[in-house]
Amino acid sequence: MWRQPKAVWAVAFASVVAFMGIGLVDPILKPIADNLNASPSQVSLLFTSYMAVMGVAMLITGVVASRIGPKRTLLLGLVVIIAGAGLAGMSETVTEIVGWRTLWGLGNALFIATALATIVNSARGSVAQAIILYEAALGVGIAVGPLVGGVLGSISWRGPFFGVSALMAFAVVVTAFLLPSTPPAERATTLADPFRALRHRGLLGVAITALLYNFGFFTLLAFTPFPLDMSAHEIGLIFFGWGVALAFTSVVVAPRLQRRFGTVPTLLVNLLAMTATLAAMAVATENKTVLATCVVVAGLFIGVNNTLITETVMKAAPVERGVASAAYSFVRFSGAAMAPWLAGVLGERVNVHAPYWVGAAAVLLAAGVLALSRSHLRGIDADEDLDELSEATAISVGSDS
């Protein structure tokens, strides 16, 4: 699995940097609120604007990549992220930061969906191995993001934003030199293709499952810094532990559980465990030790979930991987965008326990949706060779057109 072409490693490295952006701002949410006199719900819009634009923009990623090629799409996404993060760091109000985070989300959309399809298409071995490599990059990025954000955020809340810009500039150079030129696709993707892909009930079921699960995930990510009420460095360390747990289970634990128990049974148990963790956070919100411990424990379940759901998406519908990724990401990110904002509102207007109860209910509902969709997901545990899957996908696409 680890013997891959330079192109795969180049995209994987850039993915690490891109995913750092998710957790990088977590330790500075409270400092931003304190320095700019903003409420938790206002600051949580940094996540909401980012996720909402990223979800909608996922619909155009396939259209852009199929016309200018994956490499140019990846580079365009990275350049947009550099601009969005840098301008956010130069902002003077929360509204300005929220606005530039939307630009950041657009860049991430162009990059993330294309990166997943590029790694799966360029890697050697099976689909599962390629996705584990992608999830390893995701895990490392999410783990390092809060740590870097905590260190830079302890100097200034602007530090993490400028840090992302600098790292992304380096990622642009690496991607430009190590990723070979990739021609546009033979068949240009249209805006309608992701919606057509969602006609496949297996893909739709997994996408809705991911939407509800991400609701709980981003409730934990965006709201927890406020009841923890710690310094940026301390919160960075807690979420670093969360990211390490996520990276470990996504790469090491998820494949073993999948081989032994199967994808859907593993996901169902995992979602129930995540529900229990959020419920524990709802009960013991005032206890910082319990809250911090639950954050790290949640990383274990999130890692398993991310790997197995991503692999399921790549196999659930007989369409191009870029289209499947765009359709799935549109559903999960667009819906999950409301979670950070809603968590802030519930924490302000109801109590600090309410966001976690709502998050737990959403993840429990995700388990129910997945259980109802399992009849459409037969065969996803077959270890398909990447070349064989490419041929099968091409045949299916040709027969559909």
From TrEMBL:
It is a multi-pass membrane protein. Its main location: membrane. Residues 7-378 form the Major facilitator superfamily (MFS) profile domain. Keywords: Membrane, Transmembrane, Transmembrane helix. PROSITE patterns: MFS. The chain crosses the membrane at residues 7-25, 45-66, 73-90, 102-120, 132-155, 161-181, 202-223, 235-254, 266-284, 290-310, 322-342, 354-372. It is found in: Cell membrane. It holds the Pfam family MFS_1. The keyword Transmembrane applies. The keyword Signal does not apply. PANTHER family: MULTIDRUG EFFLUX PROTEIN YFMO. This is MFS transporter. It comes from Mycolicibacterium gadium.
